[in-house]
Amino acid sequence: MSAANSKPSVHISDHDKVADQAGSGSYVANFEAKESPLERFKKFLHKYPVAAPTIVLILAIIGFSAIIGDRFLHPFNLSLILQQVTIIGVIGIAQTLIILTAGIDLSVGAIMVLASVVMGRMAIDHGIEAWLALLIGIGVGAITGLINGSLITRFKLPPFIATLGSWNVFFALNLWYSKSETIRSQEIANNAPLLQWLGETVTFFGARLTYGSLLMLALFVLIWYALNWTAWGRHVYATGDDPAAAKLAGIRTDRVLLSVYVLAGIVCAIGAWVLIGRIGSVSPQAGYTTNLDSITAVVIGGCSLFGGRGSIFGTLIGALVVGVFRNGLALAGVDVLWQEFTVGILIIVAVGVDQWIRRGKA
Amino acid sequence: MTAHYDQQPILQARSIVKRYGSVTAIDHADLTLYPGEILAVIGDNGAGKSSLIKALSGALIPDEGEILLDGKPVHFNSPMQARELGIETVYQNLAVSPALNIADNLFLGRELRKPGILGSVFRMLDKRAMEERAQAKMQELGLMTIQNISQAVESLSGGQRQGVAVARSALFGSKVVIMDEPTAALGVKESRRVLNLIKEVRDRGLPIILISHNMPHVFEVADRIHIHRLGKCAATITPDSHTMSEAVAIMTGAMEVNSDPVAA
Ligand SMILES: Nc1ncnc2c1ncn2[C@@H]1O[C@H](COP(=O)(O)OP(=O)(O)OP(=O)(O)O)[C@@H](O)[C@H]1O
Ligand SMILES: [Mg+2]
User: Fold this and answer.
1) Ligand 1, atom 10: nearest CA belongs to which residue?
2) B90 CA to middle of ligand 2, Å?
3) Is the residue at A209 inside a domain?
4) Using an 8 Å Cβ cutoff, are A275 and A267 in contact?
5) Known InterPro entries for this protein (chain B) (predicted)?
6) How far, in Å, is the centroid of ligand 1 from the Cα of B211?
7) Which end of chain A has fewer surrounding CB within 10 Å, N or C?
């Protein structure tokens, strides 16, 4: 609760004299004054879900620059971190939308790879114009999202099971359609350079940003707007928070869920375009860690797996936290296995903090 | 009384049936609500009161029977359809979203958008307008001493949450307001305010269905009392025709009723 609430409550207008005599004006007891600093910190974290990952990010940056020195804070290295988290960031947006509805999507990585294969084969093997190939790939993302959403809303499958199934199905389709062959970078550069365009860079003050990173940031802002400034966004939160209450309030929660899964599919397909830009080629084996990485970013970013709580920018911060730890540990010359170890600890701590915060409410 | 019993009933339930598996929650129940009246619904726990009003508000779809609004049959498939026709309900389990703030909850499903292009093209919410209207309503109702309309509902006490649900129905009800135990979690002062609010809403011309276990409250505000027993209407009485202990006797089955004392 904010500081304003720890003051004695002020009695607002009152037109019912009888009632006034029946009870004292400041009816709500003021327990808050006796709160310990820890309780206040907990409430602060509860109110601002992005605060915890932001603190971790700042501490990590301070820590690594102290250990590694200028090399870590160099604009070039920072832009490298941003490039490294771009794909997880984009897929993390899709995952955040779904986790906000108390769901989970295990198929995001498979959708991304399937869409990238479709984009690549359409443009290269079928000679379709690159922009149209992109649109077809995005259409595939929307359809896969629609399939997930329908399994969950029509057939009432739990999201975990529905997307566990579709993950395998989409991955198999991807292997079948690609014939397990990679489309080489040179071939794409010659025939459909638009597919690689997001890998190109612009330079700001010695930092080289890819268009892909800029697109990721733009997507974050767009989805932030949709979640916070439109009725649809309120409905997404309400659906994840308490679906029964949302339904009674007149929200068509099934439609909200369906829209979320379709949008997530579209975002994953945009991630496919970013992926082609990043690795240059189209490979049916690319990005298979993205699934779990996206969940990691969302969880470290402070989104509750129970739905209805969290902020989209938390996921950006969460992805950056993972990126900073990986990069910092690598620069410090630590074995890769300790990167995985650290990320694992971060996940457990993040979920632990979420539980602690949630238990804190009255 | 301000009610008009010679007029066409606003809302009528006829022979509604609802079964949950082997349990028959509503067993050919009837209910009639006239313009301008407060109809109290009383009955034991599990008598089927909440189920009945849920059928009237679109929250459940009855297995049998029909619902008439202004004499015309209506079929609600969702609470939104009932709300669009002006039937506003305070559910027993409150139906508020804990993580959303008070203003968001009041306007949930009916958000206001900014005027002009921001609202029409960019679908931008008019948060200021919603907060101002929410603040004004909460103050007008005097239901609680809340300082911050943008605080999450989960940080409110049970009674304050109830206040939010009541405020929502008062803000949007345009035809019928249904309240399922709106004072159950409220203190003495807050209960009094809700009762006054109910009378005010009635005096504005809106009929109200009030479910309550509190006999003094029921006998104070109700124009008619619908006694629900074993999934159907056992009797409809008025505070003048019967005493509280007679009402309780009918409710528990200790007393039989032979005639309906109310016209129509
Ligand atoms: N969702 C449900 N599933 C199964 N049975 C239900 C459900 N809802 C209600 N019932 C059953 O229907 C009957 C009527 O319940 P209802 O909630 O309408 O009673 P009520 O009169 O509102 O009681 P109370 O005064 O306790 O609120 C009960 O026997 C209850 O167990
Ligand atoms: Mg009930």
Assistant:
1) B25
2) 11
3) yes
4) no
5) AAA+_ATPase, ABC_carbohydrate_import_ATPase, ABC_transporter-like_ATP-bd, P-loop_NTPase
6) 14
7) C
Give the Cα separation of B249 and A174 in Å (integer): 71
Strand boundaries in A183-281, DSSP class E: 201-204, 207-210
**What span, in angstroms and rounded, lies between the C-alpha atoms of A224 and A228?**
6
Q: Has this prediction a pTM greater than 0.90?
A: no
- Cα(B86)–Cα(A65) distance, rounded to whole angstroms? 62
Q: Is the dihedral of CA A176, A179, A185, A189 positive or negative?
A: negative
Is-contact A261 A145, C-beta < 8 A? Answer: yes
Instruction: Give the count of Cβ contacts less than 8 A between chain A and B.
Output: 132
* Residue B193, pLDDT score: 81
pLDDT category of residue A38 using cuts at 50, 70 and 90? confident
In chain A, the number of structural domains is 1
CATH of the domain at A218: 1.10.3470
**DSSP one-letter code for A77:** H
Q: Which residues contact A55 (CB under 8 A, 6 or more apart)?
A: none
Give the β-pairing of B224-229 and B38-43.
parallel
- B219 occurs within a structural domain: yes
Q: Please give the residue range of the domain that contains residue B88.
A: 11-95+174-252
- A159-178 helix and A108-124 helix, angle to the nearest 10 degrees: 20
Atom of ligand 1 nearest to the CA of B51: 18
A191: three-class secondary structure by DSSP: helix
Average pLDDT over residues A63-76: 90
At A135-189, the pLDDT tens digits run: 999 999 999 999 999 999 999 999 999 999 999 999 999 999 999 999 999 999 9
Tokens 């009888």 belong to which residue? Answer: A18
User: Residue range A261-281: average pLDDT?
Assistant: 96
CB of B48 within 6 A of ligand 1: the answer is yes
Choose the mutation target among B90, B100, B195 for the interface with A, i.e. most A CBs under 10 Å. Answer: B100
Take residue A269 and report the two structure tokens written for it: 């397909």
Q: Is residue A30 part of a domain?
A: no
**Residue stretches of chain B with pLDDT short of 50:** 1, 261-264
Give the count of domains, chain B.
1
Can you read off the two tokens belonging to residue A115? Answer: 């869409």
- The ligand whose atoms approach the alpha carbon of B45 most closely is 1
Q: How buried is A22 (Cβ within 10 angstroms: 0-12 exposed, 13-18 middle, 19+ buried)?
A: middle
- Please work out whether the CB of residue B45 comes within 6 Å of at least one atom of ligand 1: yes
- ipTM comes to 0.85
Q: What percent of chain A has pLDDT over 90?
A: 69
Q: Chain B within 8 Å of A38 (Cβ-Cβ)?
A: no
Substitution candidate for ligand 1 out of B26, B50, B54, B89 with most atoms within 8 A of CB: B50
CA–CA distance, A195 with A119 (Å, rounded to integer)? 8
